[in-house]
Write a structure and sequence with these properties.
single chain, 356 residues, alpha/beta, five-stranded parallel beta sheet, transferase, transmembrane helix, golgi apparatus, Heparan sulfate 2-O-sulfotransferase 1
């Protein structure tokens, strides 16, 4: 064979090598196609087995109806933090409720107090769980997290929320109290007439821009315990982190609101089908902007960042952002600069006993 290769002209040797390489590529391609066909066949068999089991259970009893009833029994609570684009997001829920057939209810507390009395907590939990005419329901309001398990309910609501960079949130709230926004421009605000800028307020040590005013997102997630509202409490921050991970279905950030909406639509289409497109094209969804807002200077930001309260609120914000980005990374893929929701990436197989 070696002599044959030596005696072959160089052109024939090159042609033989090319032919061999092409043959190997062809074989590899065929093997890959066979593997893909095998995978598709396995998935098809698995889907067929699942359908057979579902049909058998449908004939045996009302399990499938029970599953559908659970979806219709769902309640979502959006205990919105002020000035985190909460109205923009809530408008989407209102715009979709008739089409997607669910109810939207605003939780209006006296003087926007986020802490309910014990008796109101009981009333609220009872309303949420037993008010069947309002299910499926989407409740929203400036109320701190409430642990429904404490009240012995069997089915807890689904919590969602959005948070924002703590300084940006405080700046927005500061100017909102003075100038309002373009959502209800004629409404008189509590601090209307005060022309002092946020920078001037910080320089003078004013109460409306004090570091203590940053303490809001942590207690909203911490809940109704007294320690939650002690400014600078390490316990409150730890509890807020625990609740965010364990009690909230999804927490987004204002700066990436569209991605938050996209994930909700993919995971909870019963409520949010059409939400992404509505956010991108709707007229009301992202119109609300605080008027007369002036961005703070670097000096003002640096002064606020020296406070322990900012450090804790910012730590909580960074924690929420990291959690959100982790969830997003496992739910979407990027193509040409756009994000696309991943299709189902698991299936069931080896299902026993086999049906006859």
């Amino acid at each position: 064979m070696g002599l044959l290769r030596i005696m072959m002209p160089p052109k024939l040797q090159l042609l033989a090598v090319v032919a061999f390489a092409v043959a190997m590529l062809f074989l590899e391609n065929q093997i890959q196609k066979l593997e893909e066909s095998r995978s598709k066949l396995e998935r098809a068999i698995a889907r067929h087995e699942v359908r057979e089991i579902e049909q058998r259970h449908t004939m045996d009893g009302p399990r499938q109806d029970a599953a559908l009833d659970e979806e219709e029994d769902m309640v979502i609570i959006y205990n919105r933090v002020p000035k985190t684009a909460s109205t923009s997001f809530t408008n989407i829920a209102y715009d979709l409720c008739a089409k997607n057939k669910y109810h939207v209810l605003h939780i209006n507390t006296t003087k926007n107090n986020p802490v309910m009395s014990l008796q109101d907590q009981v009333r609220f939990v009872k309303n949420i769980t037993s008010w069947k005419e309002m299910k499926p329901g989407f409740y929203h309001g400036h109320v701190s997290y409430l642990d429904f398990a404490k009240f012995g309910v069997k089915r807890k609501p689904v919590y969602i929320n959005v948070i924002r960079d703590p300084i940006e949130r405080l700046v927005s709230y500061y100017y909102f109290l003075r100038f309002g926004d373009d959502y209800r421009p004629g409404l008189r605000r509590r601090k209307q007439g005060d022309k002092k800028t946020f920078d001037e307020c910080v320089a003078e040590g004013g109460s409306d821009c004090a570091p203590e005013k940053l303490w809001l997102q942590i207690p909203f997630f911490c809940g109704h315990s007294s320690e939650c509202w002690n400014v600078g409490s390490r316990w409150a921050m730890d509890q807020a982190k625990y609740n965010l991970v364990n009690e909230y279905f999804l927490v987004g950030v204002t700066e990436e609101l569209e991605d938050f909406i996209m994930l909700l639509e993919a995971a909870l289409p019963r409520f949010f089908r059409g939400a992404t497109e509505l956010y991108r094209t709707g007229k009301k969804s992202h119109l609300r902007k605080t008027t007369e807002k002036k961005l703070p200077t670097k000096q003002t930001i640096a002064k606020l960042q020296q406070s322990d309260v900012w450090k804790m609120e910012n730590e909580f914000y960074e924690f929420a952002l990291e959690q959100f980005q982790f969830i997003r990374a496992h739910a979407v893929r990027e193509k040409d600069g756009d994000l696309y929701i991943l299709a189902q990436n698991f299936f069931y197989e080896k299902i026993y006993p086999k049906s006859n």
